[in-house]
Design brief:
11 helices, binds FE2/S2 (inorganic) cluster, binds flavin-adenine dinucleotide, five-stranded parallel β-sheet, 36 strands
Length: 529
C-alpha cells in the first residue's frame, strides 16, 4: 500500500498533448518541469495538478474524481482540482497546480501557479479572541492548522500531555516500529511549523481541571490558561493490564511517540515477544516485530482475531496470514501473570518472553470533561456541529460521540482520519461556520503486505457479503456489512476504487437522510458566542 509511484512517466505535458486525449473525466498521468503531473478534465475545465498525494505518496491517478475534486486511493484524502488545496484529511498539505494553455487542438502545461496567500481575518465580534486546544494529537493538530488556514488571527494555544509534538500515530505500530519508516516521518510537523503559524504548543503540559464558568484551564503544575473557545481533543489511553508483573520494565504499551521509541529501543535487544491482545494495534505490532525477526506469540481471549470488527472470514484470513509469517496464536485464553522471562496463561501454558506488548484496547480520556459537568455518554456528547453541552466548548476525535446520519445513532470511533476531519470541522465551527460533521468514517490497517480499508460504521451487523476472494493466493475482495438489509459499512482489500465509490455512495445516502432526532442535536450556536 505504501509504495510510492513517484517516478516520472508518461508524456511530457510541456511539449503538449492532443486535446482529444483529455476526455471528460479521464486522468492522464505525465510530467512537466521534472515533476509528475495529472492532467484531467471536468466538463470544459482542464486541470493540471501534482500526481502524488501529500499524505503518504499514493498515485492520485489511481484515485477517484468527484465533481472538481480528486480523492486519494489509499486513505481517502481529497484535493481541489482548482487550487490543489487538501480539502480533507489525512493529507494536510496541498498538491501543486500548473497553468494550462490550449492552442491548435493541443493542451500545454505551463508554469506552476503561485499559491494565494491566506488573508488574516480581523477578530470581529462573534469570533473568539483566543482558542485553546486541549490535546496535541490528530484532532488537535488538524484543528490548529485549520484555524490558521481559515485566516484566524487570534491566539492559539495547544496543550499536550505528550512530551513530543503531534505525531503520526498510525505509523507507530507500522513502519516506525518495523524500521521501514524514516525517523523524520514522525512527528507530523517540525518545531518551526508551530512558530511560523503562531501556534503556542505547550508540551508535557497535562491539564488538571477545567472551569467552564470562568473559562479557565488549570495545568497540573498550577499554571492557568484562559480561553474564549475551547476544543477538547484528549484522545484515548491504553487499557492497562491488571495482573502480577504487569508493571515490569519489559512490559510495553503503544500510544505515544515516546512509547514507540522505548519499544524500538527494547526491540533491538529482544528475541522473543508475547503480544497480549489481538486488536489492530496488537496485530500490527506483531507484524512489525516479525519484520525485525523477533519470535512472536499472540495471546487473546477471542477465538478468531478481529471477528467482532471485521467478521469471521476476514478474522480467519488474518490469523492465517500471521501464521504464515511465523506468529503463533494462543487464543481463548488470557495472561494471568508476567515475570522477567515469561508470561503465564490461564490455559496453563508458560510462554518465554523478553518483551511483552499489551494491546487490549483503549478508553476515551474524558475525566476532565466529566469533572467539568459536560454531558457524557461513553465519550463526550456533541451535537452535529461537534459542540458539547457547554456553548463554546467543542470536542473531536476519539472522545467525541456524535449523531451519525448514516446509522441514525450516536457513535464514537477511534480512527485517525475521523479525528483529523472532526478537528477541521470543529475549528471552522469555532469561527462560526456552522458546518455539520457528516463525513463517512474511514480507517485502514496494514499488516505485512496486507492492507485493508474500511468505510462506514457497523458496530453490529446481521449479514456480510463477500465479493471476490480472500485467501493465501488471492487478496481481492469487497466485504459488505448490513443490518436489517441496510448497508452500513464496506471493507476492501486491494480494491481502492471500490472503497472510494462506497464512500461516495454513503455520502449520497447521507444527503437524503434526515438528521437523527437525538437529544442534544441542536442548532448551531457558535455564531452567538
Ligand atoms: C499505535 C497506533 C496505531 C494506530 N493506527 C491507526 C490506523 O492505522 N488507522 C486509524 O484509523 N487509526 C489508527 N490509530 C488510532 C488513531 O491514532 C486515533 O484514533 C487518533 O490518534 C485519535 O486522535 P485524537 O486527537 O482524538 O487523540 P490522540 O491522537 O490520542 O491525541 C490526544 C492528545 O491529548 C493529550 N491529552 C490527553 N489528556 C490530556 C490532558 N489532561 N492534558 C493535556 N493533554 C492531554 C495527549 O497527550 C495527546 O496529545 C492508531 C492508534 C495507535 C496508538
Ligand atoms: S496516501 Fe493519500 S491519503 Fe494517504
Amino acid at each position: 500500500m505504501n509504495e510510492t509511484k513517484n517516478k516520472l512517466s508518461g508524456p511530457d505535458f510541456v511539449k503538449g498533448v492532443a486535446l482529444s486525449k483529455v476526455t471528460d473525466g479521464a486522468m492522464l498521468l505525465g510530467r512537466a518541469h521534472g515533476e509528475p503531473v495529472l492532467l484531467t478534465r471536468r466538463g470544459d475545465d482542464l486541470f493540471a495538478i501534482g500526481a502524488i498525494c501529500t499524505h503518504y505518496g499514493a498515485p492520485l491517478s489511481d484515485g477517484l474524481l468527484v465533481d472538481d475534486t480528486i480523492r486519494c486511493p489509499w486513505h481517502h484524502a481529497c484535493f481541489s482540482l482548482r487550487t490543489g488545496a487538501a480539502l480533507r484529511a489525512p493529507a494536510l498539505d496541498p498538491v501543486s497546480c500548473w497553468r494550462i494553455e490550449q492552442r491548435d487542438g493541443s493542451v500545454y502545461v505551463r508554469e506552476k501557479l503561485e499559491r494565494a496567500e491566506q488573508m488574516q481575518s480581523p477578530l470581529v465580534p462573534g469570533i473568539p479572541q483566543s482558542v485553546v486546544i486541549l490535546g496535541g494529537g490528530a484532532a488537535g493538530n488538524a484543528a490548529a492548522e485549520t484555524l490558521r488556514r481559515e485566516g484566524y488571527s487570534g491566539r492559539i494555544t495547544m496543550l499536550s500531555a505528550d512530551a513530543s509534538a503531534p505525531c503520526d500515530r498510525p505509523n507507530l505500530s507500522k513502519g516506525f516500529l518495523a524500521g521501514t519508516a524514516s525517523a523524520e516521518s514522525n512527528p507530523l510537523r517540525p518545531p518551526a511549523f508551530f512558530l511560523e503559524h503562531r501556534i503556542d504548543l505547550k508540551l508535557d503540559a497535562p491539564v488538571a481541571t477545567l472551569d467552564t464558568k470562568s473559562r479557565h484551564l488549570q495545568l497540573a503544575d498550577g499554571r492557568c490558561v484562559a480561553y474564549d473557545a475551547l476544543l477538547l481533543a484528549t484522545g484515548a489511553e491504553p487499557v492497562r493490564l491488571d495482573v502480577p508483573g504487569a508493571t515490569l520494565r519489559h512490559v510495553h504499551y503503544l500510544r505515544t511517540l515516546a512509547d514507540s521509541r522505548a519499544l524500538v529501543a527494547k526491540v533491538l535487544t529482544s528475541q522473543r515477544a508475547v503480544v497480549i491482545g489481538a486488536s489492530f494495534i496488537g496485530l500490527e505490532v506483531a507484524a512489525s516485530l516479525r519484520a525485525r525477526n523477533i519470535e512472536v506469540r499472540v495471546v487473546a481471549p477471542d477465538t478468531i482475531p478481529m471477528e467482532k470488527t471485521l467478521g469471521a472470514d476476514v478474522g480467519k484470513f488474518i490469523r492465517e496470514l500471521h501464521e504464515r509469517h511465523g506468529v503463533r496464536f494462543h487464543l481463548g485464553t488470557t495472561a494471568i501473570s508476567i515475570d522477567k522471562q515469561s508470561v503465564r496463561l490461564k490455559s496453563g501454558e508458560n510462554l518465554q518472553a523478553d518483551l511483552v506488548v499489551v494491546g487490549i484496547g483503549v478508553r476515551p480520556v474524558i475525566a476532565l470533561a466529566e469533572q467539568a459537568g459536560l454531558a457524557i455518554d461513553r465519550g463526550v456528547t456533541v451535537n452535529e456541529y461537534l459542540e458539547t453541552s457547554v456553548p463554546g466548548i467543542f470536542a473531536a476525535g476519539d472522545i467525541a460521540r456524535w449523531p451519525d446520519r448514516l446509522t441514525g445513532e450516536r457513535i464514537r470511533v477511534e480512527h485517525w482520519v475521523v479525528a483529523e476531519r472532526q478537528g477541521q470541522t470543529a475549528a471552522r465551527n469555532m469561527l462560526g461556520r456552522c458546518e455539520r460533521f457528516d463525513a463517512v468514517p474511514f480507517f485502514w490497517t496494514e499488516q505485512y503486505d496486507f492492507g485493508l480499508a474500511y468505510v462506514g460504521h457497523a458496530e453490529r451487523w446481521d449479514r456480510t457479503e463477500i465479493d471476490g476472494q480472500l485467501d493465501a493466493e488471492t487478496r481481492d475482495c469487497t466485504i459488505t456489512y448490513r443490518r436489517g438489509g441496510k448497508k452500513l459499512a464496506v471493507a476492501v482489500v486491494h480494491r481502492d476504487l471500490e472503497g472510494l465509490r462506497a464512500e461516495v455512495e454513503f455520502e449520497t445516502t447521507i444527503e437524503t437522510t434526515e438528521w437523527p432526532k437525538l437529544r442534544n442535536t441542536s442548532s448551531c450556536r457558535s455564531r452567538d458566542n
